């Protein structure tokens, strides 16, 4: 592996816990928060892939609402349009995983430029990062919206290209970090060295790619990068 | 809706029951057949979408094997490479749904050209159809492989275009029939009139499309088409 000159993180599920929404779901539908969150997240991902393929792009925030609407229909939950919008807005207040603030500070102290590359809109990414008070950690907040005119989501190569262009580094010198095995596979296929964050003992996807490194939390990243930096 | 001049069917899950593989899975892992089949099918679909987006096409039959390998890893099932290939081959012996042979005969008797448009390879489609003795019902067996050089799966418009070109009819006169709500949505977005086959009381996807008609089995199709044919 080449020396790593910058680190690019996925946002949803990697730095920030998408299941932060469980408590709010539970408040509306007691005891069903985790089930709602699981179906909602699965459909959110599927709709990003399907709309990219269909050529029917919609912003991530709209897709988040559509996925929640599907979830309510399937689980037979009554939700007014106002509640649906309110619950979808919880995605802008999701929390970073416990070890993330410390790990980012440590990596930044090593002089590594850090960035986020996310399916979210530029506005959503800024909102989530600012809500958690972590703005000063990042040199770049990059959105699929920055892939000019392409209108697709990850794992389309046009999205990963955004990071390569904005960081102005060859892809082989940019470490891509994701908890989503499909995203890690897409980034690896694009040509980034990849670290898969496997907090929950998940199974890696069989998409013809293997991560270069696996950690169980971001706090393991600095120790791994230090020798080759 | 324009008069319908031909009917194009999805294969996997629409004409043929992908969960026909449950019995074979159960024989290998008693009591776990349905669980294995569910994860396997879900991953098979995800991998067709993800590989299309990544630009890393692989034939559907290879993806079926990859998805089974993932399933075994995740469910911690031991399967030799030979058993894995053997179990994947079950997909070439899946059975039509109970009402399908009669429904196809009835539609054919109305003078409607019938076709299949599937993610499978031309060889797989022929194999499945011939194993069930239904070859004489179809005017065309169409594969994603017929989308010259495009190397993507449904719901990419390039795949639906194959049916329009081979049937030599405007898309508005071709009824597309699928049990897969994401496929029905993709076909509707492409411009086909669409019938969704909802045998199991599923929830339609929220992808900005609605089917033109919904049936609970293919035996309801002829009665619906007769008045406008």
Automatic annotation (TrEMBL), chains A, B:
Q: Which UniProt keywords apply?
A: Hydrolase
Q: Which GO terms label this protein's molecular function in UniProt?
A: (S)-2-haloacid dehalogenase activity
Q: What EC identifiers does the entry list?
A: 3.8.1.2
Q: Which domain of life is it from?
A: Bacteria
- Please give the InterPro entries that the UniProt record associates with this protein: 2-HAD (IPR006328), HAD-like_sf (IPR036412), HAD-SF_hydro_IA (IPR006439), HAD_sf (IPR023214), PGP-like_dom2 (IPR023198), S-2-haloacid_dehalogenase (IPR051540)
Q: Which reaction does it catalyse?
A: an (S)-2-haloacid + H2O = a (2R)-2-hydroxycarboxylate + a halide anion + H(+)
The UniProt record lists the keyword Hydrolase: yes
Task: Please explain the role this protein plays, according to its UniProt record.
Answer: Catalyzes the hydrolytic dehalogenation of small (S)-2-haloalkanoic acids to yield the corresponding (R)-2-hydroxyalkanoic acids.
NCBIfam families xref list: HAD-SF-IA-v2, HAD_type_II
Q: What protein family is recorded? A: Belongs to the HAD-like hydrolase superfamily. S-2-haloalkanoic acid dehalogenase family.
Q: What name appears for this protein in its UniProt entry?
A: (S)-2-haloacid dehalogenase
């Amino acid at each position: 592996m080449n020396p790593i000159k910058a680190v690019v993180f996925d946002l949803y599920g990697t730095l920030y816990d998408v299941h932060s929404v469980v408590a709010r779901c539970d408040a509306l539908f007691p005891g069903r928060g985790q089930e709602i969150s699981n179906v909602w997240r699965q459909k959110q991902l599927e709709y990003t892939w399907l709309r990219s393929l269909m050529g029917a792009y919609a912003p991530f925030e709209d897709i988040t609402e559509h996925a929640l609407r599907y979830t309510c229909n399937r689980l037979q939950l009554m939700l007014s349009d106002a509640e649906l919008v309110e619950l979808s807005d919880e995605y802008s207040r999701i929390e970073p995983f416990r070890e993330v603030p410390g790990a980012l500070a440590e990596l930044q102290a090593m002089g590594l430029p850090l960035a986020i590359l996310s399916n979210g809109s530029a506005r959503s990414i800024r909102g989530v990062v600012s809500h958690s008070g972590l703005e000063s950690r990042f040199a770049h907040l990059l959105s699929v919206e920055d892939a000019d005119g392409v209108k697709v989501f990850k794992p389309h190569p046009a999205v990963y290209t955004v990071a390569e262009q904005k960081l102005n580094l060859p892809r082989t010198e940019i470490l891509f970090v994701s908890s989503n095995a499909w995203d890690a596979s897409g980034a690896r296929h694009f040509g980034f060295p990849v670290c898969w964050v496997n907090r929950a003992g998940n199974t890696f996807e069989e998409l013809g790619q293997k991560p270069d490194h696996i950690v169980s939390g971001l706090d393991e990243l600095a120790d791994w990068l230090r020798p080759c930096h």
